[in-house]
Amino acid sequence: MIFCRTKAEASKALEKPRAQARSLGLVPTMGALHEGHMSLVRRSVAENDVTVVSVFVNPAQFDESRDLEKYPQDLRQDLLLCEKAGVDVVFAPTVEEMYPEDFSTWVEETQLSRGLCGAARPGHFRGVTTVVAKLFNIIRPGRAYFGAKDFQQAAVVRRMTRDLDMPVEIVVMPIVREGDGLAMSSRNSRLQGPSREEALVLSRALARAEELYRAGQRDVGVLVREMLDCIRSAQHVQVDYVEIVDAESLEPLEHLNVPALAAAAVYIGDTRLIDNRLLNPTEEGTTP
Amino acid sequence: MIFCRTKAEASKALEKPRAQARSLGLVPTMGALHEGHMSLVRRSVAENDVTVVSVFVNPAQFDESRDLEKYPQDLRQDLLLCEKAGVDVVFAPTVEEMYPEDFSTWVEETQLSRGLCGAARPGHFRGVTTVVAKLFNIIRPGRAYFGAKDFQQAAVVRRMTRDLDMPVEIVVMPIVREGDGLAMSSRNSRLQGPSREEALVLSRALARAEELYRAGQRDVGVLVREMLDCIRSAQHVQVDYVEIVDAESLEPLEHLNVPALAAAAVYIGDTRLIDNRLLNPTEEGTTP
């Protein structure tokens, strides 16, 4: 496994596979890798000749400096996990390498990124699309892997890829959960003591919405209320948003007659967690 | 020469050269080709195995619908000129092919694009950077060619390419002028009767600034006044802007102790023309 800190090192590491036109998969991450990330890595290793994992805590996508400061990092452990999973190249650039002082170009998706986390975190998706566009140009993968926990992120990245004609296939993999249902997230490591238990209201609220939906409930107001009740039963959990949106357009829905997404974000102290579930009348899987 | 109307056709035409890793030059144009464009084409043909010319009147970069409607088009003649110059592929997509109805992703440079034409034409450079990013992803050239008449455009595209790590070398070629000094532009064909003669005040004003500069004049105010006097001597010419800016940052200059750019834009009727000249203390050529 090759470890690269600079774009030049990454280009050098990929020179040969590129010349041989070998298939290349990229798993963009912010490190602190967990089973969610590793499911993407395994899929990439399985279907590409070469797998690159990028590890970069991208300051441009943090709307709160405190969240950035506290974002968990464990590069040593990440490298061990990647090596073991058969990753070929880990690209972990510095902030200076990615954003020179006079950096001034942004990639911005303006429709799918407006609601949900986009409304709650101004500038977040602009940071995501910009860094992903950069990584695509540096690594030039044929496929890139994203997790469905960040459903909106995957939808925004897929739209960017289509709109800007990037020659990359976006593969979205299902949410990986802890045994008790909590969606895996690097931020989960920040949950201390009773917070970890209380965090379960997030996945439970979404599971409850899906259960009611399967039982025939089609009233958006009822489903949202049920989710809010569930989340508010926990003392230290603050609701950021709870919404049911069209799974394609991510616009708020009035009638549940198209594939929908129940999505929620909560704060537990200063740790923000998100989760979602598809509510799909056709029972076919919908990914962004 | 292969003529492509769709992205799929372009990909097919470029499949073989890509597989053989042949060098590829792209000359992005809005058609109505003149000697300025052809100087870029000839340079690309000379230094690449394969040259692609794109012909696309990009609605996203027009801030005035009337300018878009009146923009000259002559695809038949463009194809003849390209064929004769040894171009391999002409890519002339429709607007629908480039911008699907729910298109929502933009590439925006936020520093170099603020002043000059960026201030005069809101959204113009966002349209330019977005379409150039798309063309780079569709064609995937190793080099792309731009003319120095659109000095700010070349600087903005070069910055975008650096910031987003696009693997493309930006080549900027000198302004090509008519015998009487008028910078070549597709819009020149819209100048009727006395307008064509009056348009000369633009290049003359810039030549006058350079002359005074070479003679030692370092007062920005004096140079701008001289240019304004020259342009205003023509009855039907309206000044859009006349500025002297830092040739690197494109910020307004107070002291002429660094490479500078004298740049001007005028309206003759509803035809907008631009031109520029470098004022370079080191006498080395500076391109954006």
If you had to describe this structure to a student in words, what would you say it looks like?
- Two copies of one chain form a homodimer.
- Chain A is 40% helix and 21% strand.
- Chain A is of the alpha/beta class and 288 residues long.
- The first copy, chain A, has two domains: 172 residues, HUPs (Rossmann fold); 89 residues, Pantoate-beta-alanine ligase, C-terminal domain (Pantoate--beta-alanine Ligase, Chain: A,domain 2, 2-Layer Sandwich).
- In chain A, the strands form two sheets. A six-stranded parallel sheet of chain A has the order 1-4-3-2-6-7, sandwiched between helices. A three-stranded antiparallel sheet of chain A has the order 8-9-10.
- In chain A, helix 8 links the parallel strand 6 and strand 7.
- Chain A is globular, with a radius of gyration of 19 Å.
- Chain A starts with a strand and ends in a 9-residue tail after the last strand.
- Chains A and B meet through strand 5, helix 7 and helix 8 of A and strand 5, helix 7 and helix 8 of B.
In a few lines, what is going on in this structure?
Chain A is α/β, with parallel strands linked by helices. Helices cover 40% and strands 21% of the residues of chain A.
Structural class of chain A: alpha/beta
CATH superfamily of the largest domain in chain A: HUPs
Total DSSP E strands of chain A: 10
Helix and strand pattern of chain A: EHEHEHHEHEHHEHEHHHEEE
How many discrete domains of chain A?
2
Query: What is the CATH topology assignment of the largest domain in chain A?
Result: Rossmann fold
Q: What is the architecture of the largest domain in chain A at the second tier of CATH? A: 3-Layer(aba) Sandwich
Q: Percent helix among the residues of chain A?
A: 25-40%
What summary fits the major beta sheet of chain A? 6 strands, parallel
Strand content of chain A: 15-25%
Q: What is the count of helical runs of chain A? A: 11
Shape of chain A: globular
Query: What's the multimeric state?
Result: homodimer
How large, in whole angstroms, is the Cα Rg of chain A? 19 Å
Work out the largest interface and the residue count of each chain. A-B, 30 and 30 residues
Low-confidence stretches of chain A: none
- Mean pLDDT level of chain A: 96
User: What is the class of the largest domain in chain A in the CATH system?
Assistant: Alpha Beta
- Strand neighbour order, sheet with most strands of chain A: 1-4-3-2-6-7
Task: For the record, give the distance between the C-alpha atoms at the N and C termini of chain A, rounded to a whole number.
Answer: 31 Å
